[in-house]
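Inputs:
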Amino acid sequence: MPLSQRAGRRLVAGVPTLWLILLFMIPFLIVFRISFSEVRLAIPPYTPLISWHHGSPSFEVHWSAYKFLFTDSLYVSSYLYSLKVAAVSTLCCLLIGYPMAYAIAHAKPSTRSVLLMLIILPFWTSFLLRVYAWIGLLKNNGVINNALLYLHLIDHPLALLQTDFAVYIGIVYSYLPFMILPLYANLEKHDPALLEAAADLGARPFTAFRRVTLPQSLAGILAGSLLVFIPAVGEYVIPTLLGRTDQLMIGRVLSDEFFENRDWPVASAVAILILLLLVIPIMLFQRAQRRELEGAA
Amino acid sequence: MKSRGLFTRVMLVLGLIFLYVPILSMIVFSFNNSRLVTVWDGPNSPTLKWYGALVHNGQILGAAWLSIRIALVSATAAVILGTLAGMALARFGSFRGRTLLAGMTTAPIVMPEVITGLSLLLLFVAMSQLIGWPKGVGAVTITLAHITFCMAYVTVVVQSRLTGFDESLEEAAMDLGARPLKVFFRITLPLILPAIASGWLLAFTLSWDDLVITQFVAGPGSSTLPMVIFSKVRFGVTPDVNALATIMVLLVATGIAISTVWMRYRERRHARDLQLAAAANL
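Outputs:
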């Protein structure tokens, strides 16, 4: 390879790498460092990251932010609550999304592209406004309650808004396309001859599904579930607009610590603890993504 | 076989209803006369008064204009950086730093937004202490943050388009003596143009729509449209937001319809060109 070409390649790969090191990796190191400092009344409101003693740098490590998180039950409970919400929503997405992806993959090719378009279209309209739309549907004098009252199915309005149920609805609604698309990409590649062979050998449809289709689609299930689960753990908008006020999710706690309490070290420590939890799912996702993008080539 | 086909089809229809009912309800109630939003005021509806109110709402118009400018710059920069990264990942084989680049371009896609937002703000604060720039947060820091998370999406789109094509065309051009830049502009770029276009649209939408990361890196006087909407709807439903949502849905639907028609036309023309070329060779 000629020298100029090698330099050109270094530039092509180097510019985005540098950008991401500066604006994606270094910021995490700073968060990590600030989680080990103490809050103080200054601008910026934390003890200096590096202090100088006789011309040599020294790093003071404070554990107070972490100690604080484990002594106040608010943080532990919102941490566990976020896990529960993300897990339940992911499962619901899978149970709703799998049959939908299956139906699309088994539709006629011409209908398939229309159906895919219908799945993707809501994604192009504002996420915030789509969550907001559910307030109008779920609230006490909202569309759902009015309809149920009109049909005399209930006597007084159901409390739907500001419940766990509303958060599940919001997350499933917003993230469903992220579950369906990887599942569809996987299911579409399956060879229909395998199912025919299973049927010829006397397998009932459900057995054929369980023994042939399901095991083959595990990669799609994993990719879709990670795409829903990881962002759902740190979700902020949906629980703030639709969720309970007595039980916050961890993303909201982080944001409140930062904006309301101005406790940057505690907010950073919360971020680090969320990341610790998500490090394995994120690495799994990267591996799946790599296989999808490079394995095909 | 038949019964399972029926079950999945019913689920598909129900799922699509689930996806569209909230959007339709916003559109319907944007024409409602009542302030109570969800109570249909039959005698006086439909009305366009909330659309009228929107036109005179300086705060919303100003925020929308800021959001458009930020999204235009962010999407364009993200497309340039993302195309470079996608090229490197799809075409350069294994090079030093490849794993790092691949990891840093997929992580932002799933990273919870509160963490990305917090870390970027802390970076900007540390930078302004260290080198005196940026001098406070605002449109510039919002744009830098948007470029960063948008370029990850563009990278994935461009990379998957490139892996779909084998390198033989580019190699042939190289063998015929074309320089790398010429190969890029004559061969690679036309091949990935659809990916670049959809990557730009995706980046524009993500930037235009982002709330959480923006809230962290925005300052006083730099409220984007999602920030204004969020502060309005946090305390309940407001009818003018329904009108705004309807306008945005209409714009998106029109845009998608136009791009679909254009893609169909391009594909058909491409097929005809191929047929003509084949016929000429006979």
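Remarks. Chain A has a mean pLDDT of 89. Chain A has one domain: 65-295.
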